[in-house]
Amino acid sequence: xxxxxxxxxxxxxxxxxxxxxxxxxYFATFxxxxxxxxxxxxxxxxxxxxxxxxxWKGLLFAVYPLAEIxxxxxxxxxxxxxxxxxxxxxxxxxxxxxxxxxxxxxGPPTPDVLRPYLVAVFFAMFGIGAAAKVxxxxxxxxxxxxxxxxxxxFAFFDLVTFGGLVGGFGAGFLALKASVAEAVVLAAGxxxxxxxxxxxxxxxxxTEFMPEPQRGTIELLRTVxxxxxxxxxxxxxxxxxxxxxxxxxxxxxxxGTGGTAPLSSxxxxxxxxxxxxxxxxxxxxxLSDRARLRRPFMALGLACFGGLSIxxxxxxxPSGSNLGLLVSEWPLIAILxxxxxxxxxxxxxxxxxxxxxxxxxxxxxxxxIIFGSGLIIGPIxxxxxxxxxxxxxxxxxALSFIGISGAGVAFIxxxxxxxxxxxPDPAGPPDGK
Length: 433
Hints:
The chain has 433 residues and is mostly helical. The protein has helices spanning 3-11, 18-46, 54-61, 63-82, 85-105, 115-144, 150-177, 182-203, 217-225, 228-249, 251-254, 263-291, 295-314, 323-328, 330-340, 343-354, 360-389, 392-409; strands spanning 316-317, 320-321. A hairpin with a 2-residue loop joins strand 1 (316-317) and strand 2 (320-321).
């Protein structure tokens, strides 16, 4: 082992072999997310570009999370019964197929009347791949985690997911603005996801887990949902993800400027959001692990999300965002983005703290159900509000959702606050029932 490897293992409290496996897993996740969300950028551009069709656009995009939440419990239970890697490989294969199949669905041979139905089918495949991916990947990360490093390992998962989403979606968005053909962007995305299949198959190894061959899917789901701590997370997670789903589905409406916005302004806004947010994910995850606290970081993140929402809502008008105003406020955006980055790693680590090790795959499947529910609520409700109240929709949604989520944080317990032990129990604290 080289000096860098030893340093990383010591810093993140990893056993031999953990570092290489996690590195391969994170890299495959980044490649898959970037390639897949380049495809999502194309679909957002092609399907229902008229703001008058906002509700139908939100409804179509809701097919993806609906497919995810209806299948993720099954895939999570399979992770607990059969292992993680086979489900992970399947996830990447399904996603690659979905991205490639988007190409003929938007081409001239497909009649306009059939196009939404075909896209809905392939979005469903996309959601099934996401279900298998989230359940298997989060279970694998948690298999490597302990009380010393859980928030940090989940912070890196958030980083590669966020980086892939922003990088892929942004690259697709800019490629389309540069008049690159939609089919070319989709083909590049499909090749990227196919490359991630190879990475997973040959570089990621199975993690140690406790197989549950005796309990079926329904029994495993019942065991997880019987956990009071998990039920209390619903009002915390769902509103935040709903807001995320709205922003993802209506990015072009939020920053639409009629094509006159200089690229430099867009880059300043993206950099002032993305760079502090990414740095905060890693730094706050380490602080959360050292302090054995999750709730304060979740509360701070929500407060800063609220601040960002107010700032962007104030700059939004029927004709698009006032990018000049946002650019002038970039230091404030950077500060709020850094604060917002404290929420994701603490929230995921909280779930890892309360999970019962034998049903961790099923538990992270439940997390994906929560996530998918938010992605359904956000686009559909956001689409209806956008049609009804126009540019005020973002402000109404953002402040309402964040208020509900912040109130939910007050009712969850703090499971990670426990004495430091020489040999931490990898199973974590009791399941909270």
